[in-house]
Write a structure and sequence with these properties.
The protein is α/β, with parallel strands linked by helices. It is built from six helices and seven strands.
Length: about 200
Amino acid sequence: MLPHVILHNSISADGRVDWFPADIGLHYEIAGRFGADTHLGGSDTFLGMPGPIPPEDESAFQAPVRDPADTRSILVVPDSRGRVRFWHALRQYPYWRDYVALCSTSTPSDYLDYLRQRHIGCIVAGQDHVDMRRALEELNAVYGSKTVLLDSGGTLNGVLLREGLVDEVSLLIHPHLVGGVAPRSFFRAPELSDANEVIGLRLMH
């Protein structure tokens, strides 16, 4: 069974996700209204986080103590190539109660070992890339994911939109124009070959 997926992005008036001063406080105030139990972010989003990453210590290898009463969401990151290797730093943030990496059969075995040694959850779905449909079904079955907040860049957004896995789109539109010949929009995907593939929307609020 698939969870309910809400794509939530802050964009400029021309659809870009970069260069303009986004209102991050309002972005996450709105995000909090969705009551999502799962936070899905792209690996590029986290790899682009500013600031130095602290070194690992013994706590990185300790199994977390999970509280059944904890209502925070779980953090899920698709990372078929095994590039996110600072889960210990992500654990320092107070936003999430558990952590899951989405991998594929082509994910390097040393990365799977890395996750296992640090008690990071792992779902293997797909061959060359993560099969997002299967991964979302597994998140529902294994972790009880019912509502997923997709808070990511255009690439992961594009994958889920093209595969018909997004149920709602929430856009916080800022009064700025960025422009550019190759804009980083919130929806990045190959060009269409059939007009019937255009995604129609119905205004909910």
